C-alpha cells in the first residue's frame, strides 16, 4: 500500500529536536503509567466478611420504664422516662436551677441508659407545676375542677406571663441540653399529662388550654430552638378541638415526632390510626415514633406482649413494624412478662445495621450497609475502622435502605465499630456482619395453620418459598418498605415459589389473601 508523503515526514521528524522532545515525554508517560499500574495493583480491593451480631437492645430504642420503677437495672432497656415539673427548675422569674434535671439525668446515665423527659403543667389530683412567681401574680387565676374524680388545678392560659415563660423555658432548656448525650428525646404538650387533651375536667380554649395562636407560636419556637434533640407531641393533637393543625396544615411540615399514649388497645385501628395518618405515616423518616402501651384496661397491659397474637390478634412486633416504632413505654410489663420477653420486644424496635458487603485495601474501605430495623437512627453515627470515621453518617438511613460508605482506613485486621457522640458510657451501637442471619425481628409466619415463608432472610436472586396447609387458593402481593407494590400473583400450590431476582436489598412485606383469612409478614433480602 502506498503511504504517500508520511514516511518522508516521519523521517524528517525523527531527525528533529521536536522528535527527541516528544520521545522523552512519551518515555516519561510510560514510566508514570507503569508506576501507577504497580500502585493500583497494590490497592486492589479484597472482600472481607465480618461476623459480628446484634445481641443487645440498641441505644435510644426499645421499651421504656419509668426512672423510679425499680426495674431499670437491666439490659432489656436503653431508655427511661420521667415527667418533669417546671417549678422544680424555676421559682423566681429568670432564675433557673437545673439540679432536679441533672440528678435524674445522672442517675439514668449511671445505669447506661438515656432519658426521655416530658414537662407537664397538669396532672389529675395535683396542683400545677406553674412557677411560684406566676402563681403570685394578681392577674393569674387557676381553675380548680374534677379530673378523673380528683380535685385538679388547671393552668391559666389567658395569662401573658405564663405564655412568655413557657417559650423562655424551652429556650433555656435547649441551650443547656440540646447536645447532651444523657437525653435522647423530649415530649411536649398541653392539657392532662401534657398529652394534648382535657378529656376529663374543665376545658376552655385560651383558658385552661392554650389558644391556637400561642400553640402555633410554640411549635415554631421549638422548631427554631432545638437543632439536635428530636421533640414529639401526642397524636391527640390531631383533634381540631385542641390544636391548630387542621386549620393550618402547613404546621405539619415542622419536623417533630409523635407519640401514642394508648398504643395497641382494642379499637386502635380507629381513632388512633386515624390520628397517626393525619400526621403522615412517613413522619418516622425524620422524627421518632413512640408512645405507651394502652391503660384502657388491665387486659391491655397484661396481654400486650403476648406472642404471636398480642391482646387482639396482632403482636407488638407487627405493630412496631407497621408504625415504625423507635420506643414504647411499657412500665408495667415486668408484672406480666419475663425480662427476656421485654428484651425481645425492645429489639423489635428502632434501627438495626447490617454490613451487606465490605471491600478493603491497605488504606481504604468501602462498606454497603443496610438498615434492617423498623426505623432510622435520629442522630449522627459513623461506620469506623481503627478510629477513622466515614465522612457519611448513618443518620436517617431508612428501614430497608442500603447505602455505600467509604472510610480512609484499611479494614484487614482492623477494628470495625459504629461511633456516635450521642452515647453515654457503656453504650454501644452493634451491627450484624455479612454472614447468614435469622434475627428475632424478622418473624417467620408461624400461625396455627402453619403458613411458613423460608428461607428468611434470603440472598438476592434466591427463591423464597411460601408453604401453606390451608388448601385454599392464595393471592399474594409483595410490597417494599415504602409500601410500593413490587409484584403480585395467585397460587393454589401447597408450596409457592417467589422469585427475588428483581428485588433490591432490603425489607419487604408479603401479603397473602385466602378465602378464609388474610396473612402478612416480612422478609429480608440480603
Quick structural summary:
The chain is of the alpha/beta class and 526 residues long. The protein is built from ten helices and 24 strands.
SSE arrangement:
Elements: H1 6-14, H2 17-42, E1 46-48, E2 62-66, E3 79-85, H3 99-110, E4 114-120, H4 132-135, E5 143-147, E6 150-154, H5 160-177, E7 183-187, H6 212-225, E8 231-234, E9 257-263, H7 271-278, E10 289-293, H8 298-303, H9 316-323, E11 327-329, H10 339-346, E12 353-360, E13 365-371, E14 382-385, E15 388-389, E16 402-407, E17 416-419, E18 452-454, E19 464-467, E20 474-480, E21 485-491, E22 495-498, E23 506-513, E24 518-525
Parallel strand pairs: 2-3, 2-11, 3-4, 4-7, 7-8, 8-9, 9-10
Antiparallel strand pairs: 1-12, 5-6, 12-13, 13-16, 14-15, 14-17, 18-19, 19-22, 20-21, 20-23, 23-24
Question: How would you characterize this protein structure?
Answer:
α5 (160-177) runs parallel beside α6. 39% of the residues are buried. The chain is 21% helix and 24% strand. With 526 residues, it is an alpha/beta fold. It has three domains: 46-54 and 350-419, Immunoglobulins (Immunoglobulin-like, Sandwich); 62-346, Alpha-Beta Barrel (TIM Barrel); 452-525, Immunoglobulin-like (Sandwich), CATH 2.60.40. Strands 10-9-8-7-4-3-2-11 form an eight-stranded parallel sheet. The chain has a four-stranded antiparallel sheet with strand order 1-12-13-16, with no helix packed on it. The model is unreliable at 1-16, 32-42 and 439-450 (pLDDT under 50). It is globular and about 75 Å long.
